[in-house]
Amino acid sequence: MSAGPLEKDTCREVVLPALHAAGWTEDQIREQFPITDGRVIVVGRRHRRKLALRADYVLEYEPGVPVAVVEAKREYAIPGKGLQQAKRYAELLDVPFAYSTNGRGIVEDDRATGHETERLRTFPGPEALWARYRDWKGLPDDAATALALPFNRALRNSDGTVKEPRYYQRTAVNRAVAAILGGDKRLLLTMATGTGKTFVAMQIVWKLWQSAWRDPRKPRILYLADRTILIDQPLEREFRPAFGAGDNSPLWKLQGEAKAGREVYFALYQALADGGEDPNGLFRSFAPDFFDLVIVDECHRGSARADSAWRAILDHFAPAAQLGMTATPKRDETADTYAYFGDPLYEYSLAQGIDDGFLAPYRVRRVVLSPDAHGWSPSPGELDLFGKEIPLGLYTSSQFERVVSLLTRTEAAARHLSDYLQSTDRLAKTVVFCVNQEHADQMRRALHNANDDLTALHPNYVVRIVSEEGEVGAGHLSDLADVERDYPVIATTSQLLSTGVDLPTVRNVVIFRTIGSMALFKQIIGRGTRLFPDADKLSFEIIDYSGATALFSDPDFDGPPERVVEEVVDDEGAVVTDGDEVAEPEPAFGDGPELSHPGDDDAPAASAGGTPAGHVRVDEIEDAPHVKYYVGEGEVWVTAEGVYTLDAETQQLRLVEYRDFVADTVRTLFTGSGDLRSRWLTRPGRRAVLDELEAHGIDVAELAERAGLAQADPLDALVHLAWNQPLATRTDRARRVRREHAAFFATYQPQAREVLSRLLDKYAEHGIDQLDDLSVLQVPPLASLGSPSEIAARFGSATDLRAAVGALADLVYAA
């Protein structure tokens, strides 16, 4: 939020001179400092942003090192009026000092002491605040010197501007640098997917590398990950632009050679464990104290476990400071990670990123296929496609594609997804997460065939990106990640794309597998959270065919969806709009690894009782875990539409019908139908109402379509849904205007009355916009009456025409 006109006068005439008098230079005073970008609000298929947070002034001891926030209020306001606001900004920026002033008095809040001081006449100077800041942080000289070093500014945004660290990235970098230089050995940063962990890692390395931490030599740092792309992307996108390339670069990727002449190393666990001459692993070619810092990317994925095959690498380099980076908050499945690295130095959640406007919000489309809703049972003695008898029992979502492969289920999902893309955007980048690599191949083929009009022209419209695809899959991944390439559009995968892959243009994340791991669920959701405004990618859809989004109800999930729509699909992949309510599928437990062939699944099979003698039962499959059954026939079908909204009081998600969501929101915004009607009467009032509704995610055009009220005026639709008042159509309103206000039309000569009558017909057909925007005069049938100036002449002048149309609009709502 920025200062108003009178507050700006206070800033310009009083605050700036006072800061200069205290010794602050122009380079140290950041005016209208941007903190957030403003949350993205999804309104139908459009987007808008809430107001961004901006501090009047942020005082920096050195560039990128904020120490205080100053908020200015009008001269006649009390000096402390802006203190709460300043304290909020100071907390976000991780600084201890907040000031509020009206130009005559100054109030200071000091987080270090917990005291507020009134009646200050002057601001403290830079050296005084820096000394107090250092005391608050407990910074020794070397840490203070390193923090004061500038950030690396080599990276550029897509518009060519310098990529500056965001507020939370500055905090993460500064806390990590201070802790490392303070002697901490095990550190952790928890930051949501898409919030720039590798950018933060680069800046940490940069500040340490530029510091005197290991004088007279440069510090040696190891960047460790478990997937090639998690090494290659940071190396090429962040580190090489920052540190340079070529023979003089300090960067080196370890691949079978223990090169000791560089300073910043990148390596896979696999390369360190298996490479080199030492049979115990390449990592033993380096002395335990060779590295000063080890950065462990995606550290929740196993190396911190005491029984992990890769734990030996971390143990070998135990003398080094070790910084873990993860997107996954602490829970049972990540307990080992947090036990090893300790509590996070800093956490930045998915919910916070969305609220700040740095991450894309999302909507959830829950599609219930009939086997997932009701389960699937084979007939006694039924054989699969390869002649194997299928064990009797009820199979549910957790067994599909693990124990039983229902090909018609996959084809139905492919048809439904294809229809959805056809109704929205067939070139919208889409990632489909399947059960395993085989299932990803089945889904790829089904999608390829369902879109044969496009695949005939673009063979790579749908591709499979899994580990067994090798270099071919890597090429498809590179093309999918390239924001300049249109193809491939759809990628099917199992787990290869679940983490660490930067796919900024992905608009649809499709889940066609059960998920029992919150860590994996968050990683999958994270494939869509990156914003890409250059292509108008400001939100994304999650399309769930397997009930995985039930994890949104987990209290540990920190980023509720904008909306959840539930549908039921028939065996043709079409949405059934008049079906019964479908019960929520049973929760999924267990999550197998990426699989290369049908027998690699380790998910337990569900048991079923009552099996006739002589037949195999479902629970007996556990004795033969590599058996999988393929079914090519059977009916597959979609029931209810719903919305998840965040309750304003409890802050818990609750499932509501779209109509209920609109009704609750309208009742919250307006005191009653009279309040809404009075504000709707004028054109500026209508615009203000629509703006308020859009700020809460309600688009009246979408409302008319989804609530089946296309013929109603938006005002009537809103009061009907919110207060159950009788519903009138626009045609009804137009009739009443003609019937009850004949005297109004009689005041105009016949040629003018003809114009007003046709405008009223336009309103009845299309809505009030036809009266608010007189460009309608240039389209049939009004265009047949002459040019706009000729039509205006029927009323005397353009001013008289506008007055007449404005009066007609008033009568529409007076009727």
Mean pLDDT: 83
Order the strands across the largest sheet as they lie in space: 19-20-18-21-22-16-23-24
What form results from the Cα inertia axes? Answer: flat
What low-confidence regions span 5 or more consecutive residues with pLDDT below 50?
577-625, 638-643, 645-653
- Termini distance? 41 Å
Structural class category: alpha/beta
Helix residue percentage: 25-40%
What topology does this entry show?
Blueprint: H1 5-21, E1 29-34, E2 40-43, E3 46-49, E4 54-62, E5 65-72, H2 83-93, E6 97-101, E7 106-110, E8 115-120, H3 126-137, H4 141-147, H5 167-181, E9 186-191, H6 197-210, E10 221-225, H7 228-243, E11 251-253, E12 264-268, H8 269-274, E13 293-297, H9 311-316, E14 321-326, H10 335-341, E15 346-348, H11 350-356, E16 362-369, H12 370-374, E17 404-406, H13 407-423, E18 429-433, H14 437-450, H15 452-455, E19 462-464, H16 470-481, E20 490-493, E21 506-511, H17 518-525, E22 540-544, E23 563-569, E24 575-576, E25 629-631, E26 643-646, E27 653-656, H18 658-669, H19 673-680, H20 683-695, H21 700-706, H22 714-723, H23 730-740, H24 742-746, H25 750-766, H26 769-772, H27 788-793, H28 798-814
Parallel strand pairs: 5-6, 9-14, 9-15, 10-12, 10-13, 11-12, 13-14, 16-22, 16-23, 17-25, 18-20, 18-21, 19-20, 21-22
Antiparallel strand pairs: 1-4, 2-3, 4-5, 6-7, 7-8, 23-24, 26-27
Helix pairs in contact: 4-5, 5-6, 6-7, 13-14, 18-22, 19-20, 19-22, 23-25, 23-28
